[in-house]
Specification:
1 helix, E3 ubiquitin-protein ligase TRIM8, mainly alpha
Length: about 120
């Protein structure tokens, strides 16, 4: 019986050391998984940080584009005003050209009349 007790005690220790070995393996597995998860968390934090930086850059670019668009709208309005002013000036120039042509024609007519009168005076004298 003493031998049987020794065998049972040995069997118990073997089971216990087998269980301890399994527990140790599980603990090591959990530690490795924890390390992997911590590394993945760090990776995700870096990715998140990069995404936030890119978002901020895109927001700044969007704001820059908005400001540029507003400047272009102001420039467009200024150009429209200048174009209208130019049109008015061309209309005035064309009116002045027409007036000059009329005055030139009138001047030629008056010149011809004056020459006729002078010719008559010369013939009469």
């Amino acid at each position: 019986m003493g031998n049987q007790l020794k065998q049972e005690a040995l069997l118990e220790r073997t089971k216990s050391s087998g269980t301890e070995g399994k527990v140790e393996e599980e603990r090591e597995d959990l530690d490795r998984e924890s390390e992997v998860m911590n590394k993945e968390k760090l990776d995700f934090d870096l990715i998140r940080s990069d995404i936030l930086k890119q978002r901020d850059m895109l927001e700044q670019q969007r704001q820059d584009i908005k400001e540029e668009r507003e400047k272009l709208e102001v420039t467009k309005t200024d150009l429209q005003v200048l174009k209208e002013h130019e049109k008015i000036q061309f209309d005035e120039i064309n009116k002045d050209k027409a007036n000059i042509k009329d005055l030139t024609l009138h001047l030629h007519t008056e010149k011809d009349k004056l020459e006729n009168i002078m010719s008559m005076i010369v013939f009469k004298t």
